[in-house]
């Protein structure tokens, strides 16, 4: 049974399909495109957050912009940009709308999953499928839940199970499924068409933040996938190919998505400061009982001090995030065609760069998005202002995996020079 849920109207952005018919051709042009998208989203971001409608219009906007193709090969119509540019694009979009920045980030990860764990043939086929159709990719991969069960049925594998959380699935064209093959400990990723009877969304994402990410539950019932689409597996022997799944390169998927998280945290925090600064400039009143009274709030020492401190910490965090993005990009460029050459030490080193960013963006992001209320004033708490959405968005996702474990991991690295064991969150 089809469930009708309120959704935003894709037609509001229809004119941008023609306006953005050509893809950007340089890194700077791609980031300029991301800023154009952000400017459009910023116009009604607070209203859309409060209405909590399924983001069909916003996904259409991402499609029109070409940002879904940013990392894909040029031969199929992609932008062929490195992950370092992808991370910055996520950040730009998240400045205006944390939910849509998150959806873009997850799409970029899931749409390039085959690059990490797929065979060369699967990589090419997946890119052609996604880019030529301008598909948006969601994912039902939540390691905290029980794994989906996979059984083999001739030339097919069959997925069954449920996830409490999936990201963007309701508005996706393709969904990444992941589970464990019956009788083995082998994990299998596969991309499937979202719109089929065996994928049932719960439509129960009613959380305090990231309200437009469609991150609710999903049931997977007898979804059949050709063995040839089991990423990284040999369809004839029905076993993992050692050159795809059993090497450090295959575990790059985890630090890659952890850095996606940090970049939309950072974008949200920068967006909060920019939003608050406009409010302070035009709406915050000077405090008349301080003994050193000023005519304007923008002349008050404590307001200037807070903005300066927030700005400094965000600028430093941005530099750290860019450095980590360059580190990951370098590994993909160096080892993309020779995946078995990546060492565990190189993988561990980049994981600790990413862990450092996760710790700092969490700490700074939460401090800035809550602290901006101190420099905007009581009236800034009005629902119509919408300043609260920045804190709610960061607070919601920073609980994804406890940052305390990242601090512990970094402590072992700093104190004992131990690299982390690859896991679903490292």
TrEMBL record:
<keyword id="KW-0285">Flavoprotein</keyword>
<dbReference type="InterPro" id="IPR046373">
    <property type="entry name" value="Acyl-CoA_Oxase/DH_mid-dom_sf"/>
</dbReference>
<keyword id="KW-0560">Oxidoreductase</keyword>
<dbReference type="GO" id="GO:0008470">
    <property type="term" value="F:3-methylbutanoyl-CoA dehydrogenase activity"/>
</dbReference>
<feature type="domain" description="Acyl-CoA dehydrogenase C-terminal">
    <location>
        <begin position="259"/>
        <end position="400"/>
    </location>
</feature>
<dbReference type="InterPro" id="IPR037069">
    <property type="entry name" value="AcylCoA_DH/ox_N_sf"/>
</dbReference>
<dbReference type="InterPro" id="IPR013107">
    <property type="entry name" value="Acyl-CoA_DH_C"/>
</dbReference>
<dbReference type="GO" id="GO:0050660">
    <property type="term" value="F:flavin adenine dinucleotide binding"/>
</dbReference>
<dbReference type="InterPro" id="IPR009100">
    <property type="entry name" value="AcylCoA_DH/oxidase_NM_dom_sf"/>
</dbReference>
<feature type="domain" description="Acyl-CoA dehydrogenase/oxidase N-terminal">
    <location>
        <begin position="30"/>
        <end position="126"/>
    </location>
</feature>
<dbReference type="GO" id="GO:0006552">
    <property type="term" value="P:L-leucine catabolic process"/>
</dbReference>
<dbReference type="Pfam" id="PF02771">
    <property type="entry name" value="Acyl-CoA_dh_N"/>
</dbReference>
<dbReference type="Pfam" id="PF08028">
    <property type="entry name" value="Acyl-CoA_dh_2"/>
</dbReference>
<protein>
    <recommendedName>
        <fullName>Thermophilic desulfurizing enzyme family protein</fullName>
    </recommendedName>
</protein>
<dbReference type="InterPro" id="IPR013786">
    <property type="entry name" value="AcylCoA_DH/ox_N"/>
</dbReference>
<dbReference type="InterPro" id="IPR036250">
    <property type="entry name" value="AcylCo_DH-like_C"/>
</dbReference>
């Amino acid at each position: 049974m089809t469930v009708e849920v309120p959704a935003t109207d894709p037609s509001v952005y229809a004119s941008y399909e023609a306006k953005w018919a050509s893809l950007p051709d340089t890194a700077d042009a791609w980031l300029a495109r991301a800023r154009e998208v952000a400017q459009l989203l910023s116009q009604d971001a607070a209203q859309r957050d409060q209405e909590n409608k399924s983001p069909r219009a916003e996904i259409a906007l991402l499609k029109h912009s070409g940002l879904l193709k940013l990392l894909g090969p040029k031969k199929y119509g992609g932008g062929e940009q490195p992950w370092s540019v992808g991370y910055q694009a996520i950040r730009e979009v998240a400045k205006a709308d944390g939910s849509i920045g998150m959806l873009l980030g997850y799409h970029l990860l899931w749409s390039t999953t085959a690059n990490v764990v797929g065979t060369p043939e699967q990589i090419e086929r997946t890119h052609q499928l996604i880019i030529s159709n301008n598909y948006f990719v969601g994912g039902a991969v939540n390691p905290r839940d029980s794994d989906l069960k996979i059984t083999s049925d001739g030339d097919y594998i069959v997925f069954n199970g449920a996830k409490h959380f999936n990201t963007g699935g309701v508005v996706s064209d393709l969904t990444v499924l992941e589970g464990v093959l019956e009788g083995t400990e082998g994990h299998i990723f596969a991309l499937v068409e979202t719109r089929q009877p065996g994928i049932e969304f719960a439509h129960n994402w009613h959380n305090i933040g990231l309200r437009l990410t469609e991150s609710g539950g999903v049931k997977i019932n007898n979804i059949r996938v050709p063995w040839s689409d089991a990423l990284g597996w040999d369809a004839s022997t029905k076993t993992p190919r050692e050159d795809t799944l059993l090497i450090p390169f295959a575990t790059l998927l985890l630090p890659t998505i952890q850095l996606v998280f940090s970049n939309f945290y950072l974008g949200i925090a920068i967006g909060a400061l920019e939003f608050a600064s406009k409010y302070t400039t035009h709406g915050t009143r000077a405090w008349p009982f301080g003994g050193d009274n000023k005519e304007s709030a923008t002349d008050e020492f404590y307001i200037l001090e807070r903005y300066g401190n927030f700005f400094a910490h965000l600028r430093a965090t941005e530099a750290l995030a860019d450095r980590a993005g360059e580190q990951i990009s370098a590994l993909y460029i160096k080892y993309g065609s020779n995946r078995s050459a990546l060492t565990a030490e190189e993988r561990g080193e980049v994981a600790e760069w990413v862990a450092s960013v996760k710790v700092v963006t969490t700490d700074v992001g939460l401090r800035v998005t809550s602290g901006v209320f101190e420099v905007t004033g009581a009236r800034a708490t009005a629902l119509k202002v919408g300043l609260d959405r920045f804190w709610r968005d960061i607070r919601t996702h920073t609980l994804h995996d406890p940052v305390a474990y990242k601090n512990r991991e970094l402590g072992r690295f700093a104190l004992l020079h131990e690299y982390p064991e690859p896991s679903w969150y490292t």
